Amino acid sequence: MTKARRKTRRVEETPSIEWEPHRPPKGGILRIRATSCCGAYELASLGGQYFVLRPTSDGGHEETGRGMYAHAAKVFITLASEHWCAADQPLII
Ligand SMILES: [Zn+2]
Questions:
Q1: How far, in Å, from the CA of 83 to the mean position of ligand 1?
Q2: Where exactly are the structural domains of the chain?
């Protein structure tokens, strides 16, 4: 008797990215796990959940990708890899 080989197919999906205001709860420790170039995005964790933060113009933060590590990390990598960094551009005086 032969075992049928189960073929698995990995489907690379681009996570949907919707930003919402980050409202840190009282208590808990916010941990930054990774930071993209120039601090545009940060992979953070708080209370067992992971998410991606980005700064807002008013000094606050927005978040996206909240969930398990694998999901948030995928969102972080997607954003960081698509990031066009103004800091990499030559300074023109
Ligand atoms: Zn950058």
A1: 6
A2: 29-83
- CA–CA distances in Å: residue 11 to residues 8, 16, 62, 67, 68: 9, 15, 28, 20, 19
Whole-model pTM?
A: 0.78
The 10s digit of each residue's pLDDT in 73-82 is: 999 999 999 9
> How remote is the CA of residue 1 from the centroid of ligand 1, in Å?
57
The string of pLDDT tens digits covering residues 26-71 is 889 999 999 998 899 999 999 999 999 999 999 999 999 999 999 9
What is the 90 CA–ligand 1 centroid distance (Å)?
A: 13
CA of 15 to the centre of ligand 1 (A): 20
Distance 85 CA to ligand 1 centre (A): 4
Cβ pair 63, 22 in contact under 8 A: yes
